[in-house]
Amino acid sequence: MVNARQGFRTECLVLLLALAVLTAVASGRGAEYDEQYTLFLTSGIPRPNWPADIMPAGMVSGLQAGHAGSLQIAQDLRATDVHPPLYFWAAGLWRSVLGGGLFTLRLLSAACALAALALVGRIGRQIGVPPALAMVLTLGCYGFAYTGGIARGFALAQCLTLAGLTCALRPGNGARRDWMAGTLLGGAVLANYLAVFAAGVLVLFCPVASRRHWLVRLTGFLPPVALAGWFFIAQRGTRDGQFPPFEWLPALARLAGYAAASVTGGLALYAPAGARLPIAAGLILVLTMLVGLIAARWRSVAARPIRWLLLLAMIAPPLGLLGLGVVFNTTPIELRYLSFATPFLALLVAGAVRGLRLRALVLTVTGAVQAAAIAGLILRPETMQPSRATARSAAALAGDGITLLPRGNDGVGLVGAFMIEAPPDLPVLLVGPDESPDAIRGRAGAFPRVVLALLAQDGASKAEVASMRAAFTHPDWRQAAIGFNVAVYERTEPLQR
């Protein structure tokens, strides 16, 4: 009883630490491209109709302040985006109750990540793995903390996946338990398509009392997956060209780098130039150490079917992404997609170090690396998308001029993220697709100074940035300054009136 109480208190302390970390991530990081789709969709304006004239950056706040109902979200989502609806329904409800902007919406992901950590502890107790240690190792994974602090559906899908596993492992009424487990795992897919790899493994291979119970689990899993498929069929062609074509060697290198980063973070991004390669090698070495430890102490991790289940759930996301690449000739490999593997890795490591003589050394090294990675996640601009730093640089250099901003693929992600981070009164002029340099230069009007925000984050914005540069590489203009992702041009002579 004393040990149980002490364990409960320790887990509560871990959750308090997680609350502080996830709140810091949610409040400290700059606005991201994909988060704007969440904000606009749940406000009832999935594709804003930006004015052709100059507008203040603060205009975006009014456009993102509305509240769309579940039916409107579903209709708009099928017409405009490539994601299943459950997270957006939850986000719409969250905003209707709590209101607010990006930070408030990010807190939904933080709440889901906290619940996921509590479930990791519950699973640890169910399978005989140190629960608090598994929770700390999960929280320390860069990919888990990152997805727990952004306004996207990864944390909700993670929470539902772990809830499904918890339910499947719970003793009691087998049929009812397995149906609920399948429903929760299907809900994870309805929150994020890429949860299907880990969730599918848990549906197929989590121990069941009989084949009948396995079929019952499938009856819970398949309806939400079918609904997700209905959305996918409508959306499947809306993001062509999002990723480069698939090639084995680049894909494997990208996968290895992001797999390491999802656990040990991006320390090499902001290290001194000469130290980046050794640090990157060291991070991969730490991940290799953890994987090697699991292999060396395989029989000590957990009961045989459980350890194999955790291993399959851990490797399913990276293998699934490679499979998607082969089938669709694309390279859909990003760090956040690999975050679904992190709780299962943490549970395996927590089981492997139990009783290990060098346990303190292994955990000290791992903890130090993960703590540094999470600090970088919160504080370092190199780990963030460029909108915040670009907006601040543009505002500092704008003077009496205007800021030209590429519209991007659809005027959502790039424009929204920049304008959220910019001062509300910053005058902004959007540059759309196919605008010629002469037309762009003409739209600058009588302003003596222009700031080019060089945000080339998708195919359309890359072309628009090139046109913006060409527009002011002209005898009437000269480059006057440069900043973070911005270039400033001034007229060589005052405009004749």
Short structural summary:
The protein has 497 residues and is α/β, with parallel strands linked by helices. It is built from 22 helices and 6 strands.
Give the biggest beta sheet. 6 strands, mixed
- Taken from the alpha-carbon principal axes, the silhouette is globular
Cα-to-Cα separation, first versus last residue: 86 Å
Helix content: 55-70%
Instruction: Quote the beta fraction.
Output: 5-15%
Mean pLDDT over the full residue set: 93
Domain count: the total is: 2
Order of helices and strands: HHEHHHHHHHHHHHHHHHHHEHEHEHEE
Low-confidence stretches: none
Assign the structural class, choosing from mainly alpha, mainly beta, alpha/beta, alpha+beta, or little secondary structure. alpha/beta
Structure annotation, total helices: 22
Could you give the count of β-strands? 6
Query: Rounded to an integer, what's the Rg over CA atoms?
Result: 24 Å
Structure notes:
It is a single chain. The chain is α/β, with parallel strands linked by helices and 497 residues long. The chain folds into two domains: 2-30 and 101-383, no CATH class; 387-491. 64% of the residues lie in helices and 6% in strands. A six-stranded mixed sheet has the order 1-3-2-4-6-5. The N and C termini lie far apart (86 Å). The model has no long low-confidence stretch (mean pLDDT 93).
